[in-house]
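Design job #97: recover the sequence.
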């Protein structure tokens, strides 16, 4: 009652009903294409209707069954078995943020030049996510592009495992590599379903296709008792309708179709649903993140809250040319909206140029933004001690509160709200320091932080045993065997 907090929402109960009704109609009439025979057979057995041109129509009652069957909360742990956070609606911990997304390039923090993403970059990115307090998970930061490297996607996960103890979100495109990755983690860690720290991430193909590779990875994940993220990526005007309403219904239908498949494979499977909405910029032939995409992210979070299903949303990556003015607007808007809304998980912070280039400086800048918006979301108190009428009376008209007991007691707490990156220079101090630029200060801060990253104490042990495991896999893959 005495706590004042900010929040944001957009869909009324009636509007949620409209979105859901249109979603059900789309699934029952247009349906989805299911490329995997194994997955298709499950749908056919459940619906009692044959597939036509690999297309499955999903009846309303099957969708409602899947919603009720899916757990409302998912407990995640770090790799040492310590409880990390719980995803669900409502979520007591607020929005969970993570760095990553499968970038092909690396943006050098020294000069913002673009380089091919390598194993060294992946190690640095993971260590960065491990060290920064605003990030709760580390997602696959990039795609290692080194000629001759066997199983690069598996190697990426090995480096993630060795360089952080935080929960991992794994994005692996190749189903064979995905299975090897699960085998590797089981070899190094044991039963992955016991205190799960790994969250695989999957995308269907928009519009309305559950492709075979995604189905294969779903089966492998569910068979091992793991939770996973099932997320739609649609570009309004290209792979999705140009209108926000049409895009919302289409992406929502894809998510519920994936949910149905998961519950048909194994009832009670923990699933995290969400979308990464974008718009297609026809002039520049790129995807873009706009006010409409932010609204769609918010609307998707509210639909998942309505269903009682944990949600994964967008993370603000994509628009910048570096840790610049262009990026900052998107980052601030996204992180603030996510934190004030019902977004449970935002796992992909740190990419620029349409999420193609991983930027350590952007990750560090976002760490400060997330810290600030979390402070903002805490609100303030109106209880008697906070209002402090006695203190105000004691100071009286024309006085000041510099020496009050309340100021002395709470100053350090309020000082924490100031930036950890940029000093609070007055004009005179700024001029005396040679008029430094804000981006130069961020660069210096980032380079100093990157020079002092430390790995978990079991890093060498994990890398060594993981490399031996991969050597055995390579031997099994050899044509001579």
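Job complete. Output follows.
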């Amino acid at each position: 009652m005495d706590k004042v907090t900010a929040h944001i929402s957009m869909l009324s109960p009636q509007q949620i009903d409209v979105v859901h009704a249109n979603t059900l109609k789309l699934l029952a009439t247009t349906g989805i294409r299911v490329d995997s025979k194994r997955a298709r057979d499950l749908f056919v057995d459940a619906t009692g209707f044959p597939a036509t041109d690999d297309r499955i129509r999903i009846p309303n009652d099957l969708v409602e069954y899947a919603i009720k069957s899916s757990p409302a909360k998912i407990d995640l742990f770090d790799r040492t078995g310590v409880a990390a956070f719980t995803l669900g609606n409502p979520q007591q911990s607020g929005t969970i943020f993570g760095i990553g997304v499968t970038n092909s390039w690396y943006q050098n923090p020294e000069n913002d030049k673009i380089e091919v993403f390598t194993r060294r970059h992946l190690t640095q990115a993971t260590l960065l996510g491990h060290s920064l307090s605003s990030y709760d998970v580390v997602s696959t930061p990039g795609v290692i592009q080194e000629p001759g490297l066997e199983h690069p996607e598996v190697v990426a996960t090995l480096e993630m495992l060795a360089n952080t103890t935080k929960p991992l979100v794994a994005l692996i495109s190749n189903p064979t590599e995905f299975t090897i990755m699960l085998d590797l983690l089981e070899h190094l860690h044991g039963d992955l379903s016991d205190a799960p720290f790994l969250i695989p991430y999957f995308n269907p193909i928009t519009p309305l296709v559950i492709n075979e590779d995604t189905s294969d990875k779903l089966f492998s994940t569910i068979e091992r008792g793991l939770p996973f993220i099932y997320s739609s990526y649609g570009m309004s005007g290209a792979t999705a309708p140009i209108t926000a309403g049409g895009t919302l219904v289409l992406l929502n239908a894809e998510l519920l179709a994936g949910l149905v498949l998961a519950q048909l494979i194994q009832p009670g499977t923990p699933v995290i649903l969400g979308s990464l909405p974008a718009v297609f910029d026809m002039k520049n032939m790129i995807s873009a993140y706009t006010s409409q995409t932010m609204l769609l992210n918010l609307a998707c979070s509210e639909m998942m809250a309505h269903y009682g299903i944990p949600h994964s949303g967008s993370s603000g990556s994509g628009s910048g040319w570096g840790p610049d003015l262009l990026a900052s607007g998107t980052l601030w808007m996204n992180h603030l909206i996510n934190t004030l809304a019902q977004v449970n998980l935002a796992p992909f912070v740190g990419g620029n140029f349409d999420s193609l280039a991983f930027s350590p400086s952007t990750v560090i800048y976002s760490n400060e933004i997330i810290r600030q918006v979390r402070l903002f979301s805490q609100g303030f108190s109106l209880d008697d001690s906070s209002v402090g009428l006695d203190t105000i009376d004691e100071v009286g008209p024309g006085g000041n509160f510099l020496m009050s007991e309340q100021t002395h007691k709470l100053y350090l707490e309020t000082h924490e709200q100031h930036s950890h990156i940029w000093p609070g220079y007055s004009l005179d101090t700024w001029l005396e320091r040679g008029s430094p630029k804000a981006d130069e200060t961020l660069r210096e801060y980032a380079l100093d932080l990157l020079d002092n990253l430390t790995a978990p104490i079991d890093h060498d042990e994990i890398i060594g045993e993981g490399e031996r495991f991969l050597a055995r896999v390579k031997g099994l893959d050899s044509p001579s065997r």
